[in-house]
Amino acid sequence: MYKLKDSDSPNLWAFNTRDLMRAATCDHCIKLAIAKELDMPGVRSLLEPYALEGKTLAMAYGDKFESEIEEELRASLNPDDFRRPEGKDTFAETVALMHAGVPVIYQGALRHRSGLAEFTGRPDFLVRGDYDLEFVKGKLFAKPAKSRIAAKNEHGTIGYIAWDAKLASSAKPHYLLQVALYVEALDAIGLKAHAMHGLILGSRTLELFEEGEIVPAMRQARSYLETAFEQAASGDLKDFELKHLSLHCDIQSTCSICEYPDLCEHNRKEIDHLVQVAGINKSQIEKLKKAGIATMAALAGASDEQRPSDFVPGSFDKLRKQAKLQTSFRETGKHSYLVVDDPEIGVLPPASANDIFFDMEGFPYFEEKGGLEYLFGAITRDKKFHEFWAHDREQEAVAFTDFVRFAYDKLQADPTAHVYHYAPYEVTALNKLATRHGVMEAEVDWLITEGKMIDLYKVVKGSIMVSQPSYSIKKLEAFYEFGRKSTVVDAGSSIEEYDYYRQLAEQDPAEAARVLQTIGDYNEDDCVSTLALYQWLSSMPGAHAKFAEFRQAVDRKKAEWAADPEDEDSATNKAERELAELQRATDHMAKAIADWRWGENPEADYRAKIWQALMHSVLYYKREEVITFRERYLRREAVDETLHADRKALVVAGCQREASGFDGMHLNPTVKITLDYTYVLEPGQTLLLKPGSAIYVRFSYGANQNELDRGTLVSIDGNRISFKRVTTIANANFEPNAIFEDLFIRAGGKQDAVRENSLGLANEWVSPMFEAPIGNATLDLLMRRSPALIDDGSLLPVSGDDYLPAVINAVERMHRTVLAIQGPPGSGKTYLGSRTIAHLVAQGKKIAVVANSHSAVENLLSGCIDAGVSSGAIAKQPKKEDRTARAWTTPSSYSVMKNWRAKQAGGYVIGGTAWTFCSSYVLQEEFDYIFIDEAAQFSLVDAIAVGGGSTNMVLLGDPMQLTQVVQAVHPGGVDNSALGHYMGEQQILDAEHGYFVEVTRRMHPSVNAPVSWLSYQNRLHSHPDAAAQQVSGLSPGFELHPVSHIGNSSHSPEEVEAVLALTQKHLQLVGQTEVLIVAPYNAQVDAIRTALDAVGLTEVQVGTVDKFQGREAHIVIVSLAASTSDDAPRGLEFLLDRNRMNVALSRAKTNSYLVFSPDLIRTRFNNVEDVKAISRLAGLLEFAKN
Known about the structure:
By secondary structure, this protein is of the alpha/beta class. The protein is built from 39 helices and 40 strands.
């Protein structure tokens, strides 16, 4: 940033997107920059030695890419339709060109002033709003857009779309901020198009962004600059004096975007900041500071009596030892380490001639979801380097296959050999890739579950403590004097270098090859260093001493489960065998696309992708089983840091065992007993499991080796949890160190149904070289075809706000096809579905109603009764152990239901989950229609499984609310929901595929407005009846309730107090059942529940959004709990997830409240999703202000 000298205002400042990135999270960065520009005494001389050299990452090649794009667009248009401002006042000329309606303006100038901050920039392309950009065979074209020919903005003009060209292959946070600045500048002059704006990427793809996803975050970040500029303009410069400036970022991770990261590091050392202690976290630092321990040296010298009362004793002692080691190095310059009790090096496998030392490189910014694993590197003991490269998704599958085959063959030939790596990334990535590509699954499973993958990071952490500020392999190299040859310094730099390579690949192949070689050298260094680390650990006293004993115990365990088919490890092997059998059953489908020539024909490619989906749907359920078992193994072996980031797990070291009647008794060691435990969540910990969940209880039996018991999560009371553990007398004294969810659910009859339906469809289709057959609802769903109607006509338009006549007309005309109805919150989706079903039943039709949950099915069945369907014409088998009386027939079994169907003379309805409609009894007679409710949560594979039993399929749901949860990303796109797949990239269903219900009958307009903006592109409006509703004495609306607090993650006592006060205030106006309270984390839910119960408010409902979809109340209070983005478990992407926020706020009929920490909105933009998340929150705050 710099002060503008020639402007009409003496206090105006210019800024760029890097300034916005820094301002978004760190006052230190802003104030240093301003102090330097103001030339405050001593500041410039202090900063000069720490200034980073300007990096021009492929800037010349970026210009070349931009020039290529320019030429391609110019060639696709008439000369007068592609213009570049050439005059002295490029801004004025750009505006003139836009007013003249030039379709594409290259390198136009835009500027916009907000407060004392002025932005001036040149969007690469300004494209008129009725034109589209499109890549055709790798070349960019501009052409008229049929869908936006008449689209005009509020100023009556078509307006312009801002496009920026970036050589990078994927979007980055500052790119979004740049586009946001252009969007705002266009809006300020009344020339912004009603369309999404975006990026032209070096991968020759386009990425578009909604205004609401990017502009609010940019404005929020800029507001911090504006505040600082105003302070500087006021003449009060005290905060910019050197003695008052902070010389380090408050959060160490912010240094990645800081102008002076070396100054930050130097200053932290100078003041001996606690953050230097390896493994310490933010909450621990705060606790220590409160106890008067503010430096690393103070921690090193602290006594037991100085331990903070809320600090686990073991954790305090461990941090103190770590601080002593680091302080000793600082004082003496000599590195040291200590070996912990019962170290894991005791079970480290002895060396084998065929051992492999392995490292991977990944690129998180790859244009496709999930990143790209681009290098699999390995050395053998002779230090020969084996490298397997990939630069796209297809090459990734090949490189992955080649590496796994290389490792598997070596280790099969030598049972004593292992694959050594450092940190859990490699194993997690191999597991992910096996599932993503559907290849080498059995081999990867063998490598993992047979203990062939040895994580030396886990061994290090379980064996030694070192005098380094981190336990990265680079820091450990000081102990075994390893010298690197690569110029790449760390994993972050390797990502930047690979990004550089991808930008250079077509522009300068020779330079690209040189960059790739430096990355290869870096990977080879890591592999050789892993070997050297192994040798160092192997040289320590006690290394390998317990390995033989450990292997004997493992072999005994194998023998036990081999003899017991009910044992879970035996079930793992069974699932693997069954998956292999299913893969053989789909071999003919795999061969049909084995040599597919991708990229030549988009329509043929889409058919091939659907063919893949059919193939992988056969494998889906069994693959989910195998994944579940494999992840159980990975969690058993995971280090605590990995489990802290795992939403399905919780570290419970230090948990307290309740007294039991077995204490002191002498029983057979194999006797099973049940023990009770309690654990108090540490700050920063969160538990997303629900009471009653089946869990695994992990415990260590020595040498950092873990085993599992079964258990149950009993209760969650604020930050205190209780769980049960079923164990043996022999293992009872091994205390639990972690728990995680038992996710195994058997597919049952769904497996046979999806196999039969998918293979049957494939046989009918023959090959994806041909068009997919018509006249099948499941194939219409997969192919995303518009509904096939008996008269070959189109869907009727809706008249006003009454959708029912059009929907009934469409359903009556369906001909072996699929129809979708997207129903936003309160839109009457259940009303439409039930009335349509009632109409069909009256015509004698046989109807199936299916959903993921019994409650969703029963809600729609109840609606059918309200619509006039006789209760005697409805049947549903009750949920197991549910004895509640129902209005409909409740057959006790599928065979009884079959007999009930046979007796029906007219139309009828059968409800159930997917298991019901995969039963051979139920499938013996085809249904005329199957209605899939909550279809955005209903898996595509389940839809394929149940689709074979019905002529037509109707999807009811909304992908902008809660969506489907799966264990992993599956190949073929079969991890999507039925409605999510059918809608593709659309957020709002188009008129060709069904109906988007644009009216809510629940939300008052002032409650609906932020919801419509957040999730429905401002298209959702309130029905007049909803606009008329109001709580007497209370103005309808969405309001903020900021509550300041520090260090809270999943539970905020301050927000609990605020929620209670808000609730009590509103209960003077409404009854308890008219208040719903929503929180993202179970710990906050339980704390609020406890507070409500304590004052007798037992009927006020509180829960996460998962509990409340489909519910409503006059008053909704949302509590976010986390103090800052860094405190938020699972990050902002979860806390401010658009779908979850949509569900939370849209429960309200007349009034909604957001209780939150004001500091939550101040965050570092780590990725594109962070920009979007902050935009959501900032945008909602703007709605409340207005």
